[in-house]
Structure formats: C-alpha cells, structure tokens
Amino acid sequence: MEVSDTHILPIKMSTTFAKGNVNAFILPGSPVTLVDAGTHLPGSIQQLREGMAEVGFTFQDVEQIVVTHMHTDHYGGVSAILQETDAVVYVHRQAMGMLEHGKEGFERDEEFMRRFIEECGAAELLKRQRKFYPLHWKEVRYLEEGDVLTAGGREWKVLYTPGHSQSDICLWDVDSGDTIVGDFLLQEISSNAFITPPDKREERRPRPLMQMRESFRHVYELPLSTIYPGHGDPFTDFRALIDQRLQEQEDRCDKIVLLLAQGPRTVYELTRELFPWLQENGMFLGLSEVQGHLDLLLERSRVQVERRDSVAWYQAVQER
Ligand SMILES: [Zn+2]
What are residue 251's phi and psi, to 5 degrees? Predict the structure, then answer.
C-alpha cells in the first residue's frame, strides 16, 4: 500500500484508566515516527503491534518515537518497542529528571507528594507505596519550545504547553496546521492539571492550573487546524474548546469561594464536597484539581490560607 506522506495514522489502545482508550500516531514518511506508545501492559503492546500492522508498519520500522508527555498511558509502551528497534526517543527537556535522576529523585518526589497530601488534610490516603521502575531508553533527545523536528516527511514545530504535566508538548505542522497535542486539549473530558514536585533546581512546586492557562494563551492565536488528541477523535475548533475550559475554571472557582464562605476548609474537604463521587484511587486527581483552582484564587486574592500543624486551611477573603 502506498501511504501518502501527509497522513497521520491513529492507533487506539485500551487503558485501565477512566479516560478509556489512548491514541498513538504513526507518521509515515521519513523518518518513520511513532508519537506516543500507550501503556506498558501486554494487551496494549499487542494492540499497538496490530494497529501498526494494519497500516503496514512493524516496530522495526520505527526510526524515532516522540513522547507527548511523561504519563504512563503515553510512554509505557516505549520500552517494549525499543527491544526491537534502535529508534531515538524525543521528549521535552522537563522529562530529564524522571529519566536520569533514578531512584533518589523518585524518592524525593514521593516524599514531596506525601507532604502535599498531608497538607491537603488527606493523611488517611497515605497508604499508597509506589514502586520505582527505571526506564532504560537507549538514545533520548530533549526538545524545547520552538525546536523543529523532522518526522514522517514533514517539519513540526515544538510547542511547550505545560499544565497537565510538566513535560507536555504539541507538534505543530506550520504548513497544514495539523497539530498533535497529547493531553493538552481533550474534547471529552477536561484535562487534569496534575500537582507535581518542583524541579530539582526549584524550591516551590509549579502551579499547574496557572501553567495550563498560560499554555492556552500561548496557542490561542496560532493558526492550528486539525487537532490530534491523546484520547478521543481529531477535532477542529480548538478555540471554542479553550473558551469552554476557561469558563469551567471560573465556575469552579466561584463554587469553591461559595463553600469557603461557609467556613474554613482543607483541600480534601473541598474535594469531597465538589466531587462526592470520587473513589479513593481517583482522589489525587480531585486534590490536584482543587489545589490548582486555589492557586488561582490565591493569586486573585479571593482566598487566603493558614497552616496549622502540617495542614493548610483555606478561607474566603471578605469582599469590602
Ligand atoms: Zn493520557
């Protein structure tokens, strides 16, 4: 089969996450490029293998892999592919900590997360013990905002769009407007802004919701056309989607202020009031979401925070 250079070939794989399927994309043409790789689970690797075979490619054909962000449903399959090819892996520079700092860095990050959960007033959730899995990717090259990457016979401009994670990038084909966005813009669900530990050089954690809003501003005026997301089908009207997400954030901010007008609350208490359906294993997403909005409300001086012992209590600032 003769495959046109201009194609972006989607491959869907299942995950165990609430988001359901995750997409990878084959960019045929030189160099043959795989964008994202699903989870590490054998079933997912098999789906990737079969999906690629359907469009005429094997793992051995892959010359380079681009990871849109360092979440396991996007990079988990990379190691399995690298057993069959010497493909170069491209990822944003922010992933360097995770790829190169090893167990020590992992433990420092885990300690930060434990303190964050405690600060949320959610110490009862601190049962989880995550295990460290080192990633042995042979050749990694780091990308930054403005870099140009040749992939699948086209030139793609790298846009750095942190918020959902610290390593989110989009690949923008300036000529056609086609843009592969990872989880930065999703139609079916609003993309969570995950609380993450500070970078090694920093003292304070990033404020992910604020970063996401900045990333929205960064792309808003760009002439992007078809958007290829990490979950769900391609779509076009990305500005309407951004407008909708920004409005949802305003509504959520107002809800939080209303709750805080009734008295001081912890992040955990707010999370359970706003998302009563969340089970324990999804609670971290809720805590992240609420903390992100509180960061924004603090910035706008609509709330204030007071720390008692290791717990942060938020209250509404009385309007004069
Ligand atoms: Zn994802």
Answer: -60, -40
Angle between helices 283-299 and 267-274 (to 10 degrees): 110
Protein residues within 5 Å, CB atom, of ion ligand 1: 73, 183, 230
Half-sphere exposure of 289 (CA within 13 A, CB side): 23
Residue range 91-141, pLDDT digits in tens: 999 999 888 878 888 899 999 999 999 999 999 888 767 788 888 899 999
Q: What is the mean pLDDT of residues 27-44?
A: 96
pLDDT above 90: residue 319: no
Q: Which two tokens stand for residue 65?
A: 């892999």
Give the residue from 312, 297, 201 showing the smallest Cα distance to 250: 297
Pairing of strands 303-308, 227-229: unpaired
CATH superfamily label, 9-115+127-243: Ribonuclease Z/Hydroxyacylglutathione hydrolase-like (3.60.15.10)
Q: Are strands 148-151 and 154-160 parallel, antiparallel or unpaired?
A: antiparallel
- The Å distance, Cα 38 to ligand 1 centre, comes to 9
**In the chain, % of residues over pLDDT 70:** 96
Question: How far does residue 293's CA lie from ligand 1's centre (Å)?
Answer: 21
What's 248-316's CATH class? mainly alpha
Distance CA 63, CA 284 (A): 36
pTM higher than the cut 0.85: yes
Q: What is the whole-number distance in angstroms between the Cα of residue 182 and the centre of ligand 1?
A: 7
Task: Tell me how far the alpha carbon of residue 117 lies from the centroid of ligand 1, in angstroms.
Answer: 22
Q: What are the residue boundaries of the structural domains of the chain, listed by start?
A: 9-115+127-243, 248-316
For residue 277, the CA-to-ligand 1 centroid distance in Å is 21
**By C-alpha distance, which of 282, 180, 164, 179 is closest to 222?**
179
- Interstrand relation of 64-66 and 33-35 (parallel, antiparallel or unpaired): parallel
Are the C-beta atoms of 94 and 68 separated by less than 8 Å? no
